[in-house]
């Protein structure tokens, strides 16, 4: 009899626990879903901000490119009294090696270039 | 249980049963239909704007970038009374009311009203909050250096498609595939993020150097004004790799406003226009004769006092001479001497060498619209041809073809393929393509060396290109002067000329090979007078820019002087 009573109490707690887990699970799912939606809104908002910032960045890039043009810099230099240096007064180191060929990936020596060709 | 309790229980249970039935209806029976309806409301299909890749110079300086611009559109079927909108929009957009009305009443689902609107006009229209009217952010191409390298860069149309230049030929690389995106939105029309990045096109890195391009354009512009010329071209190339450092063409245009210019101004004359090269073509005769062993530098030829009869025509020299050596013939640009050497070489061999140097076929440069020029087969030559072709008449060439031919002498006998693009990179900078240099030997190094010596002689006191000489470095090159052929009169014009100079510097170890072509100059016409000084200016500035040391100074390191800077003896 005592055994049966204990079993009933355990059964009640088992059911209660199961129901609690199910309800908690349901609420968690709903909460997660709403949290994800809220997050999506936040991301969308951040993306809007990002779009604005990217737009600003593009405009700044355009401004930088215009400001750093060789033509403009030369004009400004002339205004400030600078002049193109006379080659007679520029003394450069004379390298005792094969002449360089300018390439985008870096400098390539003439003998390397000819070697690559063969 | 009381009667009241039974009623309450029944109502509550009944209420839940109704809810369950409704839920069953929504979630099981009509699930598919309702889901489809919800998706239509939640998701909006939109074409995601794609950013075109950047065009950069060889040092990574931006030559073509993108800016965002707002474009105004309408959905005519959502507008109840278009008449109400017409006046408002025409005032704000500064457009004729009829144009606005036609678009608003077009009956289509989507119509552009105006694209790329200035930011000042956008806010007032947005404030009106008009139903069926909206803005879409579009990408707009912007060329921050305006006219600089405009003929190389080209331009795009309103839909961001390449129309000319690098923009056209590398369009598929610069333009990423347009993405159809399904954007999730709520009941208020607010968008939820899909978390995907904006698609971007690949970047194109040119071989062009902004500094050298500016130098080329500046010296060309000065020459155009000095000689009141009709057109002009300056190209600078690496003789070993075929990388184009600069390509300046005049008249020029601003690609930001390309539709304001005549198509003839937008044409890249460096590639599309052919002209008769004149004396610069004598290189082919000389190269053929040396390579075949017909002459050497000291072979003496009688120039007959500067006159020779070919068929019914008499061809004269500008500076009549008697007996000259082969070297002197090229240095003094004797027509008579060159024709006599060409006769010794024969038409078949002359044609063979002209073809070998790439005349009559495209150079293979990665630019659109290149002309192949014109070179007749020996079977089609007339009696006069043997007097005309060796001195650069009856043959049509592009400035780039001539430049490539002189690069052969500069680099020791290799015919290179010119390029304007050196690399293509993904938006994150990962290299996708790198330029592979291609060249083939067409001349022995001995012949190239002799020709280099002879061409150095033309830029001396007794040569025709005296004014092309650069202080401190040796220049090698050749002048060219030709009369333009008048298509209407079917004869050579008496006052319209093309003056040119093509050369390389420093002659012993060339860093650049460049050509200057000035079309229809006024007040002078000899290549040595008009084009050679332009080359001198160009070479002076370029050698300083590239930090090429002078050849006439001995250097030694001095205590206390920073690394790389040396004083002279």
Looking at how many chains there are and whether they match, the oligomeric state comes to heterodimer
Question: How would you name the CATH homologous superfamily of the domain at 210-545 in chain B?
Answer: DD-peptidase/beta-lactamase superfamily
Rounded mean pLDDT of chain B is 87
Please give the count of helices of chain B.
20
- Give the number of domains of chain A: 1
**Could you list the spans of chain B in which at least 5 consecutive residues all have pLDDT below 50?**
561-569
How many strands, which pairing sense, and closed or not: the largest β-sheet of chain A?
Answer: 2 strands, antiparallel
Number of strands of chain B: 25
In CATH, the topology of the domain at 210-545 in chain B is named Beta-lactamase
Please tally the β strands of chain A and state the result: 2
Number of helices of chain A: 3
Radius of gyration of chain A: 38 Å
Q: Average pLDDT of chain A, to the nearest integer? A: 76
Helix proportion range of chain B:
25-40%
General shape of chain A: rod-shaped
The biggest beta sheet of chain B is recorded as: 7 strands, mixed
What strand line-up does the widest sheet of chain A have? 1-2
Q: Beta-strand percentage of chain A?
A: 5-15%
Shape of chain B: elongated
Low-confidence stretches of chain A: 103-111, 113-118
Strand content of chain B: 15-25%
Summarize this structure as a short list of keywords or feature phrases.
heterodimer; A: 118 residues; mainly alpha; two-stranded antiparallel sheet; B: 569 residues; alpha+beta; Beta-lactamase; 7-stranded mixed sheet; 5-stranded antiparallel sheet; disordered C terminus
Structural write-up:
The complex is a heterodimer of chains A (118) and B (569). Chain A has 118 residues and is mainly α. Chain A has one domain. In chain A, 71% of the residues lie in helices and 7% in strands. Chain A contains 3 helices and 2 strands, in the order H-H-E-E-H. In chain A, strands 1-2 form a two-stranded antiparallel sheet. The longest helix of chain A is centred in the first third of the chain and has 66 residues, at 2-67. Chain A starts with a helix and ends with a helix. Mean pLDDT of chain A is 76; it is low at 103-111 and 113-118. Chain B is an alpha+beta fold and 569 residues long. Chain B has a domain at 210-545: DD-peptidase/beta-lactamase superfamily (Beta-lactamase, 3-Layer(aba) Sandwich). In chain B, 34% of the residues lie in helices and 24% in strands. Chain B is built from 20 helices and 25 strands. In chain B, the strands form 8 sheets. In chain B, strands 2, 3, 4, 5, 8, 18 and 19 form a 7-stranded mixed beta sheet that branches. In chain B, strands 10-9-23-22-21 form a 5-stranded antiparallel beta sheet, with helices on both faces. A 3-stranded antiparallel beta sheet of chain B has the order 1-6-7. In chain B, a hairpin with a 5-residue loop joins strand 18 and strand 19 (431-434). Chain B is elongated, with a radius of gyration of 34 Å. In chain B, 44% of the residues are buried. At the A-B interface, helix 1, helix 2, strand 1 and helix 3 of A face strand 3, strand 7, helix 9, helix 20 and strand 25 of B.
